[in-house]
């Protein structure tokens, strides 16, 4: 676990976040926090802004308004003398190094072996010794059920296997925050359960904070501490999974769930 200047601050805070693509406002006045060790799932109709939220945390999308804090530290902009000013690229990089992301489309480096994919960032970003990175990579491959695939190339693996490698690669950075963006949406139905089992194990055995976008409602229900329902770029309901799935207070949540469950 990395050191943190403000251990009591939320791990993630969105404060009055706004996101525009050209002249289209996708997120407006969005504020929420995620506490250390919390697993929060974003649900809601397609286009409601779920993936955009994850991409903003990872600084893969430009923040057009408001503030995001990671462990209490401003990620992209900070307020100084009443003005909204960008933070240094160095600080931004330091903070995003603490965040791992797994994408719908795996995004493995196709020209590298599985092992090389996993050790790349720990060696070049964290400065971990190669032999230690390799040892950890083998442990992680064991953990995700692929102990004999270290020397394979991603193209030789099934989608489910590639996604398990992507999870191992994210965990190799020992992240404080793991962002999961529809990680099973591109997979054949029969391997979805394997990938979700790996993630259930990660949830059960680590205290990594997770922000999850998924259409797998039973997974969301089992692993989340909290579920946030988005609609039109706003959080319309945020509650424990039991409440959201059995007794949602918002009619829009009921409609959404009856369509997907
Ligand atoms: P969700 O994950 O809930 O399906 P997204 O965050 O992917 O929603 O998208 C929210 C809205 O932002 C959608 O209307 C989408 O069309 C728009 N959007 C997302 N990415 C871009 C982009 N790169 N350029 C323009 N519009 C985008």
Structure description:
Keywords: Amino-acid transport, ATP-binding, Cell membrane, Membrane, Nucleotide-binding, Transport. Its main location: membrane. This is L-cystine ABC transporter ATP-binding protein YecC. GO terms for molecular function: ABC-type amino acid transporter activity; ATP binding; ATP hydrolysis activity. Belongs to the ABC transporter superfamily. The chain has 261 residues and is an alpha/beta fold. It has a domain at 108-174. Helices cover 36% and strands 26% of the residues. It has 9 helices and 12 strands. The chain has helices at residues 50-57, 89-96, 114-124, 130-143, 159-171, 189-205, 217-223, 241-246, 251-260; strands spanning 12-21, 24-34, 39-43, 65-70, 73-74, 77-80, 83-86, 99-102, 177-181, 209-213, 226-231, 234-239. The strands form 3 sheets. The chain has a 6-stranded mixed β-sheet with strand order 8-9-10-3-11-12, sandwiched between helices. A hairpin with a 2-residue loop joins strand 11 (226-231) and strand 12. Helix 4 (130-143) crosses helix 5 and helix 5 packs parallel to helix 6 (189-205). It is globular and about 50 Å long. The model has no long low-confidence stretch (mean pLDDT 95). The protein binds adenosine-5'-diphosphate. Adenosine-5'-diphosphate binds next to helix 1.
């Amino acid at each position: 676990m990395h050191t943190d200047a403000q251990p009591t601050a939320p791990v993630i805070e969105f404060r009055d976040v706004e996101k525009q693509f050209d002249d289209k406002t996708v997120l407006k006045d969005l504020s929420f926090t995620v506490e250390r060790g919390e697993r929060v799932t974003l649900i809601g109709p397609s286009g409601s802004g779920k993936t955009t939220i994850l991409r903003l945390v990872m600084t893969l999308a430009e923040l057009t308004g408001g503030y995001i804090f990671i462990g209490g530290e401003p990620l992209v902009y900070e307020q100084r003398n009443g003005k909204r000013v960008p933070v240094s690229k160095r600080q931004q990089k330091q903070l995003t190094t603490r965040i791992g992301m797994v994408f719908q489309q795996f995004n493995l480096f196709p020209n590298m072996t599985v092992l090389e994919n996993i050790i790349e960032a720990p060696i070049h970003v964290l400065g971990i010794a190669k032999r230690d990175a390799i040892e950890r990579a083998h442990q992680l491959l064991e953990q995700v059920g692929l102990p004999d695939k270290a020397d394979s190339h991603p193209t030789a693996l099934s989608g489910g296997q590639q996604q398990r490698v992507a999870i191992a690669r994210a965990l190799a950075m020992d992240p404080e925050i793991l962002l999961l963006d529809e990680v099973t949406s591109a997979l054949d139905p029969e391997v979805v359960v394997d990938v979700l089992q790996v993630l259930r194990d990660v949830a059960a055995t680590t205290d990594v904070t997770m922000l999850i976008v998924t259409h797998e409602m039973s997974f969301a229900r089992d692993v989340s501490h909290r579920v946030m329902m988005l609609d039109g770029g706003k959080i319309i309901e945020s509650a424990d999974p039991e409440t959201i799935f059995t007794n949602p207070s918002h009619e829009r949540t009921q409609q959404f769930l009856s369509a997907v469950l």
